[in-house]
Design goal:
The chain has one domain. The chain contains two helices and no strands. α1 packs antiparallel against α2. The protein is rod-shaped.
């Protein structure tokens, strides 16, 4: 009976370790997905600002495009920093 309990304990400890690794991998994947989406949104913002600049005025294009780009760059940098904090624990 004691041997069986030790086997169950070892199994659950091993399973918990795998779950921890899977959670870290899931976090990294989520952060990579967020960074990809941020880059896509940034591309759309830049194209929109350039179109506004060509069709309207460059001042208006800069006003429309700069603030969202700064917010996306800041979010991207924070996601990259968080990703680097998670990855070394995984190896």
């Amino acid at each position: 009976m004691l041997t069986t309990l030790k086997l169950y304990k070892a199994y659950y400890n091993k399973k918990e370790g795998l779950t921890m690794t899977n959670n870290q991998n899931a976090q990294v994947v989520a952060l990579e997905l967020w960074r990809f989406c941020a880059h896509c949104i940034a591309t759309i913002v830049v194209v929109g600002a350039v179109l506004i600049g060509f069709l309207g005025s460059w001042e208006l294009g800069l006003k429309v495009g700069v603030l969202p780009l700064l917010a996306l760059i800041a979010a991207d940098m924070l996601a990259r920093r968080r990703e680097h904090d998670i990855q070394p624990r995984n190896s």
